[in-house]
């Protein structure tokens, strides 16, 4: 919005407190996009690229575990 550098973070906090957009929603969306974009199948990446791919591919399960706490 040009005024709040943390707008997305603030939206996320409010949405989660209102239970309209939860960690489960984030995990579901991330899982959908990783699958849709076949991120796990990316090859020919640098070492940093491979680490980043692995991080993104494992992020959804990590979010789900945090949600269960």
UniProtKB/TrEMBL annotation:
GO annotation (BP), single: fatty acid biosynthetic process
Keywords noted in UniProt: Fatty acid biosynthesis, Fatty acid metabolism, Iron, Lipid biosynthesis, Lipid metabolism, Metal-binding, Oxidoreductase, Transit peptide
Cofactor(s) listed in the protein's UniProt record: Fe(2+)
Metabolic or biological pathway, per its Swiss-Prot or TrEMBL entry: Lipid metabolism; fatty acid metabolism
SUPFAM superfamilies cross-referenced by the UniProt entry: Ferritin-like (SSF47240)
GO molecular function terms noted in the UniProt entry: metal ion binding; stearoyl-[ACP] desaturase activity
Keyword Transmembrane helix attributed: no
Top-level taxonomic group: Eukaryota
Family: Belongs to the fatty acid desaturase type 2 family.
Subunit structure: Homodimer.
Name of the protein in its database record: Chloroplast stearoyl-ACP desaturase
Organism the protein comes from: Musa acuminata
Organism lineage: Eukaryota, Viridiplantae, Streptophyta, Embryophyta, Tracheophyta
């Amino acid at each position: 919005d040009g005024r709040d550098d943390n707008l997305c973070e603030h939206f996320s906090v409010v949405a989660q407190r209102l239970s309209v957009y939860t960690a489960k929603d984030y995990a579901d969306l991330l899982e959908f996009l990783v699958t849709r974009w076949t991120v796990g199948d990316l090859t020919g990446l640098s070492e940093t690229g491979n680490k980043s791919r692995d991080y993104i591919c494992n992020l959804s399960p990590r979010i789900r575990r945090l949600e269960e706490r």
